[in-house]
Automatic annotation (TrEMBL):
This is Acyl-coenzyme A thioesterase THEM4. It catalyses: (9Z)-octadecenoyl-CoA + H2O = (9Z)-octadecenoate + CoA + H(+); (5Z,8Z,11Z,14Z)-eicosatetraenoyl-CoA + H2O = (5Z,8Z,11Z,14Z)-eicosatetraenoate + CoA + H(+); tetradecanoyl-CoA + H2O = tetradecanoate + CoA + H(+); decanoyl-CoA + H2O = decanoate + CoA + H(+). The lineage of its organism: Bacteria, Bacillati, Actinomycetota, Actinomycetes, Streptosporangiales. Its EC number is 3.1.2.2. SUPFAM superfamilies: Thioesterase/thiol ester dehydrase-isomerase. Keywords: Apoptosis, Cell membrane, Cell projection, Cytoplasm, Fatty acid metabolism, Hydrolase, Lipid metabolism, Membrane, Transit peptide. Belongs to the THEM4/THEM5 thioesterase family.
Length: 181
Protein backbone atom coordinates (compact mmCIF):
# COMPACT_ATOMS: atom_id res chain seq x y z
CA UNK A 1 0.00 0.00 0.00
CA UNK A 2 1.08 3.54 -0.72
CA UNK A 3 1.10 4.55 2.94
CA UNK A 4 2.27 7.88 4.36
CA UNK A 5 4.47 8.12 7.46
CA UNK A 6 1.69 10.19 9.06
CA UNK A 7 -0.43 7.06 9.67
CA UNK A 8 2.39 4.83 10.94
CA UNK A 9 3.13 4.90 14.69
CA UNK A 10 6.67 5.96 15.63
CA UNK A 11 9.13 3.09 16.21
CA UNK A 12 8.85 1.64 19.71
CA UNK A 13 5.17 2.57 20.17
CA UNK A 14 3.75 -0.11 22.49
CA UNK A 15 0.92 -2.43 21.41
CA UNK A 16 -2.31 -0.57 22.24
CA UNK A 17 -4.86 -2.16 24.57
CA UNK A 18 -8.64 -1.65 24.66
CA UNK A 19 -10.19 0.12 27.65
CA UNK A 20 -10.88 -2.46 30.40
CA UNK A 21 -14.64 -1.81 30.05
CA UNK A 22 -14.67 -2.14 26.24
CA UNK A 23 -16.95 -4.82 24.81
CA UNK A 24 -14.66 -7.41 23.19
CA UNK A 25 -15.97 -10.30 21.07
CA UNK A 26 -19.39 -8.70 20.82
CA UNK A 27 -21.55 -7.06 18.21
CA UNK A 28 -21.09 -3.28 18.37
CA UNK A 29 -24.29 -1.29 18.18
CA UNK A 30 -24.54 1.93 16.18
CA UNK A 31 -23.10 5.01 17.91
CA UNK A 32 -25.92 7.14 16.54
CA UNK A 33 -29.17 5.96 14.88
CA UNK A 34 -28.90 8.54 12.05
CA UNK A 35 -25.19 8.04 11.34
CA UNK A 36 -24.57 7.64 7.60
CA UNK A 37 -22.08 4.84 8.33
CA UNK A 38 -23.79 2.71 10.98
CA UNK A 39 -27.20 4.20 11.80
CA UNK A 40 -30.20 1.86 11.30
CA UNK A 41 -32.50 4.88 10.80
CA UNK A 42 -30.53 6.32 7.88
CA UNK A 43 -32.54 5.55 4.72
CA UNK A 44 -29.58 5.28 2.32
CA UNK A 45 -26.69 4.86 4.76
CA UNK A 46 -24.19 2.02 4.84
CA UNK A 47 -25.79 0.19 7.81
CA UNK A 48 -22.37 -1.14 8.77
CA UNK A 49 -22.46 -3.95 11.32
CA UNK A 50 -19.37 -4.71 13.38
CA UNK A 51 -17.90 -7.10 15.93
CA UNK A 52 -14.94 -6.24 18.19
CA UNK A 53 -11.94 -8.51 18.71
CA UNK A 54 -9.04 -8.69 21.10
CA UNK A 55 -5.94 -6.83 19.99
CA UNK A 56 -7.96 -3.63 19.40
CA UNK A 57 -9.51 -4.83 16.16
CA UNK A 58 -12.97 -4.79 14.56
CA UNK A 59 -14.53 -6.71 11.69
CA UNK A 60 -17.43 -5.08 9.88
CA UNK A 61 -19.71 -5.88 6.96
CA UNK A 62 -21.20 -3.51 4.42
CA UNK A 63 -23.36 -4.61 1.47
CA UNK A 64 -23.13 -2.25 -1.49
CA UNK A 65 -26.58 -1.15 -2.65
CA UNK A 66 -28.03 0.70 -5.65
CA UNK A 67 -27.80 3.98 -3.73
CA UNK A 68 -24.02 3.60 -3.31
CA UNK A 69 -23.06 3.62 -7.02
CA UNK A 70 -20.53 5.84 -8.79
CA UNK A 71 -20.02 4.20 -12.18
CA UNK A 72 -23.03 2.11 -13.25
CA UNK A 73 -23.12 -1.06 -11.19
CA UNK A 74 -20.02 -0.15 -9.14
CA UNK A 75 -19.56 1.34 -5.69
CA UNK A 76 -18.53 5.00 -5.49
CA UNK A 77 -14.98 5.42 -4.16
CA UNK A 78 -16.08 8.04 -1.65
CA UNK A 79 -18.68 5.65 -0.27
CA UNK A 80 -15.99 2.99 0.13
CA UNK A 81 -13.79 5.53 1.96
CA UNK A 82 -16.77 6.24 4.23
CA UNK A 83 -17.11 2.53 5.00
CA UNK A 84 -13.42 2.41 5.93
CA UNK A 85 -13.73 5.60 8.04
CA UNK A 86 -16.71 4.20 9.92
CA UNK A 87 -15.09 0.80 10.59
CA UNK A 88 -11.90 2.57 11.73
CA UNK A 89 -14.00 4.79 14.01
CA UNK A 90 -15.44 1.68 15.64
CA UNK A 91 -11.96 0.60 16.75
CA UNK A 92 -11.29 3.84 18.61
CA UNK A 93 -14.62 3.44 20.44
CA UNK A 94 -12.88 0.53 22.18
CA UNK A 95 -10.57 3.08 23.82
CA UNK A 96 -13.74 4.68 25.25
CA UNK A 97 -12.67 8.21 24.45
CA UNK A 98 -14.08 10.53 21.76
CA UNK A 99 -12.00 10.61 18.57
CA UNK A 100 -12.43 12.15 15.11
CA UNK A 101 -10.71 11.34 11.82
CA UNK A 102 -7.74 13.65 11.22
CA UNK A 103 -6.34 11.88 8.17
CA UNK A 104 -7.72 9.04 6.03
CA UNK A 105 -5.75 7.25 3.30
CA UNK A 106 -7.35 4.79 0.85
CA UNK A 107 -5.97 2.57 -1.90
CA UNK A 108 -8.50 1.09 -4.34
CA UNK A 109 -7.24 -2.26 -5.62
CA UNK A 110 -10.33 -3.78 -7.28
CA UNK A 111 -13.75 -2.51 -8.42
CA UNK A 112 -16.59 -3.30 -6.01
CA UNK A 113 -19.87 -4.27 -7.77
CA UNK A 114 -23.33 -3.51 -6.39
CA UNK A 115 -24.49 -6.49 -4.32
CA UNK A 116 -21.00 -7.20 -2.96
CA UNK A 117 -20.66 -7.63 0.78
CA UNK A 118 -17.41 -6.07 1.89
CA UNK A 119 -15.70 -7.73 4.83
CA UNK A 120 -13.70 -4.98 6.52
CA UNK A 121 -11.04 -5.56 9.16
CA UNK A 122 -9.63 -2.61 11.08
CA UNK A 123 -6.97 -2.45 13.75
CA UNK A 124 -5.32 0.14 15.96
CA UNK A 125 -1.53 -0.07 15.65
CA UNK A 126 -0.60 2.49 18.31
CA UNK A 127 -1.73 5.36 20.50
CA UNK A 128 0.60 8.29 21.18
CA UNK A 129 -0.87 11.15 23.20
CA UNK A 130 -4.06 12.25 21.41
CA UNK A 131 -3.14 10.38 18.21
CA UNK A 132 -4.43 6.90 17.37
CA UNK A 133 -2.86 5.11 14.38
CA UNK A 134 -5.12 2.74 12.46
CA UNK A 135 -5.20 0.46 9.43
CA UNK A 136 -7.97 -1.28 7.47
CA UNK A 137 -8.57 -3.81 4.73
CA UNK A 138 -11.80 -4.61 2.84
CA UNK A 139 -12.26 -7.97 1.09
CA UNK A 140 -14.87 -9.00 -1.49
CA UNK A 141 -17.71 -11.28 -0.33
CA UNK A 142 -15.79 -13.32 2.27
CA UNK A 143 -13.39 -12.74 5.16
CA UNK A 144 -10.66 -14.32 2.99
CA UNK A 145 -11.86 -12.86 -0.34
CA UNK A 146 -9.71 -10.73 -2.62
CA UNK A 147 -8.62 -7.40 -1.11
CA UNK A 148 -10.52 -4.53 -2.78
CA UNK A 149 -9.61 -1.54 -0.59
CA UNK A 150 -6.83 -0.80 1.90
CA UNK A 151 -6.91 2.10 4.29
CA UNK A 152 -4.93 3.81 7.01
CA UNK A 153 -5.85 6.66 9.31
CA UNK A 154 -4.84 8.98 12.06
CA UNK A 155 -7.65 9.66 14.53
CA UNK A 156 -7.33 12.50 17.05
CA UNK A 157 -8.81 12.43 20.55
CA UNK A 158 -11.11 15.38 21.16
CA UNK A 159 -13.04 16.66 24.18
CA UNK A 160 -16.81 16.01 24.24
CA UNK A 161 -17.11 19.79 23.66
CA UNK A 162 -15.96 19.14 20.06
CA UNK A 163 -19.42 17.69 19.42
CA UNK A 164 -21.43 20.06 21.58
CA UNK A 165 -19.74 23.22 20.26
CA UNK A 166 -19.41 22.26 16.59
CA UNK A 167 -22.43 19.92 16.31
CA UNK A 168 -26.07 20.88 16.69
CA UNK A 169 -25.72 22.04 20.25
CA UNK A 170 -26.73 18.90 22.14
CA UNK A 171 -24.09 16.65 20.64
CA UNK A 172 -26.42 13.69 20.19
CA UNK A 173 -27.37 13.39 23.82
CA UNK A 174 -31.14 13.83 23.63
CA UNK A 175 -33.31 10.67 23.54
CA UNK A 176 -33.99 10.88 19.77
CA UNK A 177 -30.27 11.40 19.11
CA UNK A 178 -28.92 8.74 21.36
CA UNK A 179 -25.16 8.09 21.30
CA UNK A 180 -23.67 4.75 22.31
CA UNK A 181 -20.08 5.33 23.40
C1 LIG B 1 -21.06 10.88 27.15
C2 LIG B 1 -20.09 10.63 25.95
C3 LIG B 1 -20.48 11.48 24.80
C4 LIG B 1 -19.57 11.27 23.64
C5 LIG B 1 -19.98 12.20 22.55
C6 LIG B 1 -19.59 11.66 21.22
C7 LIG B 1 -20.60 12.10 20.21
C8 LIG B 1 -20.16 11.76 18.81
C9 LIG B 1 -20.44 10.39 18.41
C10 LIG B 1 -19.69 9.74 17.55
C11 LIG B 1 -18.47 10.32 16.90
C12 LIG B 1 -17.81 9.30 16.05
C13 LIG B 1 -18.20 9.48 14.61
C14 LIG B 1 -17.48 8.46 13.80
C15 LIG B 1 -17.52 8.82 12.34
C16 LIG B 1 -16.23 8.47 11.72
C17 LIG B 1 -15.19 9.41 12.10
C18 LIG B 1 -15.36 10.76 11.39
O1 LIG B 1 -15.64 10.82 10.23
S1 LIG B 1 -15.09 12.16 12.32
C19 LIG B 1 -15.55 13.50 11.19
C20 LIG B 1 -14.42 13.95 10.31
N1 LIG B 1 -13.35 14.62 11.04
C21 LIG B 1 -13.49 15.87 11.48
O2 LIG B 1 -14.47 16.53 11.32
C22 LIG B 1 -12.27 16.44 12.18
C23 LIG B 1 -12.08 17.93 11.84
N2 LIG B 1 -10.79 18.38 12.37
C24 LIG B 1 -10.67 18.87 13.62
O3 LIG B 1 -11.64 19.03 14.34
C25 LIG B 1 -9.29 19.21 14.05
O4 LIG B 1 -8.43 19.46 12.96
C26 LIG B 1 -8.66 18.06 14.94
C27 LIG B 1 -9.52 17.83 16.20
C28 LIG B 1 -8.52 16.74 14.15
C29 LIG B 1 -7.24 18.46 15.37
O5 LIG B 1 -7.27 19.80 15.85
P1 LIG B 1 -6.70 20.22 17.29
O6 LIG B 1 -6.59 21.71 17.29
O7 LIG B 1 -7.52 19.61 18.39
O8 LIG B 1 -5.27 19.55 17.42
P2 LIG B 1 -3.94 19.73 16.54
O9 LIG B 1 -2.90 20.31 17.42
O10 LIG B 1 -4.22 20.39 15.24
O11 LIG B 1 -3.59 18.18 16.22
C30 LIG B 1 -3.24 17.30 17.29
C31 LIG B 1 -2.14 16.41 16.77
O12 LIG B 1 -2.63 15.67 15.63
C32 LIG B 1 -1.87 15.98 14.45
N3 LIG B 1 -2.78 16.06 13.31
C33 LIG B 1 -3.98 16.64 13.26
N4 LIG B 1 -4.51 16.52 12.04
C34 LIG B 1 -3.61 15.82 11.30
C35 LIG B 1 -3.59 15.37 9.95
N5 LIG B 1 -4.61 15.58 9.12
N6 LIG B 1 -2.52 14.68 9.54
C36 LIG B 1 -1.48 14.44 10.36
N7 LIG B 1 -1.43 14.85 11.66
C37 LIG B 1 -2.49 15.53 12.10
C38 LIG B 1 -1.21 17.34 14.74
O13 LIG B 1 -0.03 17.50 13.97
C39 LIG B 1 -0.94 17.21 16.23
O14 LIG B 1 0.21 16.42 16.38
P3 LIG B 1 1.30 16.72 17.57
O15 LIG B 1 0.55 16.59 18.88
O16 LIG B 1 1.78 18.14 17.32
O17 LIG B 1 2.36 15.67 17.37
Amino acid sequence: MNRSALTVPPPGTPEPRPHPDALIGEKLGPHYAKCFGCGPDHPTGLHLEAVSHDGLSVTAEFTVGDVHQGAPGLAHGGVLATAMDEALGMVVWLLRKPYVTGRLETDYLRPVPVGTTLHITTRCTGVVGRKAYLEAEARLDAPDGPVAVRGAALFIEVPVAHFTEHGDGVGGMTPDREVNP
